[in-house]
Write a structure and sequence with these properties.
The complex is a heterodimer of chains A (95) and B (141). Chain A is mainly α. Chain A has a domain at 33-95: Ribosomal protein S18 (30s Ribosomal Protein S18), CATH 4.10.640.10. Chain A has 5 helices and no strands. Chain A is globular, with a radius of gyration of 17 Å. The N and C termini of chain A lie far apart (49 Å). By secondary structure, chain B is of the alpha+beta class. Chain B folds into 2 domains: 2-92, Alpha-Beta Plaits (2-Layer Sandwich); 102-140, no CATH class. Chain B has 5 helices and 4 strands. Chain B has helices spanning 16-32, 70-81, 94-115, 122-125, 133-140, and strands spanning 2-10, 36-52, 55-67, 85-92. Chain B has a 4-stranded antiparallel sheet with strand order 2-3-1-4. In chain B, a hairpin with a 2-residue loop joins strand 2 and strand 3. The radius of gyration of chain B is 21 Å and the shape is elongated. Classes of the chains: A mainly alpha (95), B alpha+beta (141). Chain A binds chain B through residues 32-33, 36-37, 39, 41-42, 45-46, 48, 70, 72, 83, 85-92, and chain B through 7, 9, 43, 48-50, 52, 58, 60, 62, 87, 89, 91, 96-97, 99-101, 103-104, 107, 130-134, 137.
């Protein structure tokens, strides 16, 4: 059965992409939310070092699909990063 | 009661004494209108992520103010007028703090429930919607 391995490989994370054509199967370890692991309740916009981990070179906010952050934490992060930009803790646009 | 964080950046060429004057001036502006300044955090000199008014450095100060919200307008006006302030940012944080506290309480309650061996009690186990991963962590505690 071809549908079997998907059962225990991944959970909710990926929307069903069926119909997009065959052969697009990437087997990757399930990422887990870094902020959940550290039990962060509030993402402070002044903590630029911590926020920097979610802002690559270009200065954009790292998408959830890459970082594996959970939705509630990604919302907090996005808000904090935007505030941090206004306070010149983070750049609007990197190099 | 609302809690605000007033962050402002002072130009790097400002004298130490002038910075102190500015801080007291702004806190007075807040207290005169009935607010209380809960905390003054001088983060200090820091590199700016991008130049502001040709400055690449700035002296960061954060005031934590508790009030009704009306005082903020006056403090902001003063910051806008003060030449030494090159950037300011006001954030209302009481709601965020409340939410953070709620999450923390929920997590503690859950950890306690797990410790008590109340594994079968489904009502407690299904309460957390937000944090999947911390649940597994909580069991180790």
């Amino acid at each position: 059965m071809s549908s079997e391995p998907r059962e225990h490989g991944r959970r909710d994370d990926r929307p069903p992409k069926d119909g997009r054509g065959p052969g697009r199967r990437f087997v990757r370890a399930r990422k887990s939310c870094r902020l959940c692991a550290e039990k962060v309740d509030y993402v402070d916009y002044k903590d630029s070092r911590m926020l920097g981990g979610f802002v690559p070179e270009r200065g954009k906010i790292l998408p959830r699909r890459i970082s594996g952050t959970c939705a509630p934490h990604q919302r907090m992060l996005a808000e904090a990063i935007k505030r941090a930009r206004n306070a010149a803790f983070l750049p609007f646009a990197g190099d | 009661m609302r809690v605000y964080e007033l962050l402002f950046i002072v130009a790097p060429n400002t004298e130490e004494g002038d910075i102190e004057n500015l801080i007291t001036q702004l806190s007075d502006a807040a207290t005169n209108q009935g607010a209380t300044v809960a905390k003054v955090d001088r983060i200090g000199r820091r590199r700016l992520a991008y130049p502001i008014q040709k400055y690449t450095e700035g002296y960061y100060v954060v005031l934590t103010v508790e009030g009704t919200g009306a005082e903020i307008a006056e403090v902001e006006r003063r910051m806008r007028v003060a030449d030494a302030v090159i950037r300011y940012l006001t954030v209302r944080i009481d709601e965020d703090l409340k939410r953070a506290d709620k999450i923390r309480q929920r997590r503690l309650a859950r950890a306690a429930a797990v410790r008590a061996g109340a594994r079968g009690r489904r009502s407690e186990a299904t309460v957390p919607i937000a944090k999947d991963d911390s649940e597994e962590e909580g069991e180790e505690e």
